[in-house]
Design brief:
Layout lengths: L4 H27 L5 H34 L13 H10 L12 H18 L15 H11 L2
């Protein structure tokens, strides 16, 4: 079977035109190679934040387990389990266990957290206003350590 001249000419012209249209896009794609720097920077930032979060978690768990030990509260190991540490906090503060449901309500959880930390401070024979320090940005890092390792 023979291809008509007009079709063969059209295929030849259209393929040359397509190459001419695609050539600048191919040239630009080779010049704009993606850099590995943004990926490395993002991965480094994520690793840094994960290490900081892990250090904060270990610090809070150690402080809470020390507070449980000094207040003679059973099951101090619950400080290392993420949701169970709320149960331990309620036990140290001598609050009812069903208050854990109140931690699920958005604004009420802040108030309950303050009340629970006030109870923990009282259990350690410290002034109850130390529980309010949980909402102050830098003091919320210092306060658990003070309640755990002070005399």
């Amino acid at each position: 079977m023979r291809v008509p001249r007009s079709v063969a000419a059209w295929v030849r012209v259209s393929s040359i035109g397509a190459c001419a249209l695609l050539l600048p896009a191919i040239a630009n794609a080779q010049d704009e190679r993606p850099s590995a720097l943004p990926f490395a920077l993002g991965a480094g930032m994520i690793a840094f934040f994960l290490l900081v979060a892990l250090a904060a978690y270990v610090y809070m768990a150690l402080a809470l387990s020390t507070i449980a030990q000094k207040t003679n509260t059973e099951n101090g190991w619950l400080a290392w389990i993420p949701v169970a540490n709320l149960i331990l906090m309620l036990n140290i503060a001598r609050k009812p266990i069903w208050w854990i449901v109140l931690f699920l309500i958005p604004i009420v959880s802040i108030i309950i957290l303050i009340i629970v930390w006030m109870g923990i401070a009282e259990a350690r024979n410290k002034p109850s206003w130390w529980g309010i320090m949980v909402i102050v940005p830098i003091m919320n890092l210092i306060m658990p350590g003070y309640l755990a390792w002070s005399d």
